[in-house]
Design a protein that fits this description.
The protein is mostly beta strands and about 80 residues long. The chain contains two helices and five strands.
C-alpha cells in the first residue's frame, strides 16, 4: 500500500519508494528510510496535504508525493 492510503490515526512502516520518486533523496535526508515508523496525524479539510509523524517530527506531504512512498500497515 502507499502512504497516502493510511487514514488519520493509523500507523505504518516504510518499505520503499517508487523508482522515479523525485523527492526520494530529500525524504531520506529527513529520516524516511526503510523500516521507519510513520503515523498519520491528520489531513487538511480538503484532504490534501496530510500530516505525518516521522521520527518525532510532523511533516506535511501532498497526496501525489505520499503516493510514491510504499508502506505496510502496523497494528496499534
Amino acid at each position: 500500500m502507499c502512504l497516502d492510503e493510511i487514514k488519520p490515526g493509523q500507523r505504518a512502516v516504510v518499505t520503499g519508494f517508487d523508482n522515479h520518486c523525485p523527492l526520494r533523496r530529500r525524504l531520506q535526508d529527513l529520516g524516511l528510510i526503510d523500516g521507519t515508523p510513520v503515523w498519520c496525524v491528520g489531513r487538511s479539510p480538503l484532504g490534501d496535504p496530510s500530516a505525518y509523524m516521522i521520527r518525532q517530527t510532523v511533516i506535511a506531504l501532498r497526496r501525489e508525493d505520499a503516493r510514491q512512498i510504499h508502506v505496510r500497515e502496523v497494528e496499534p
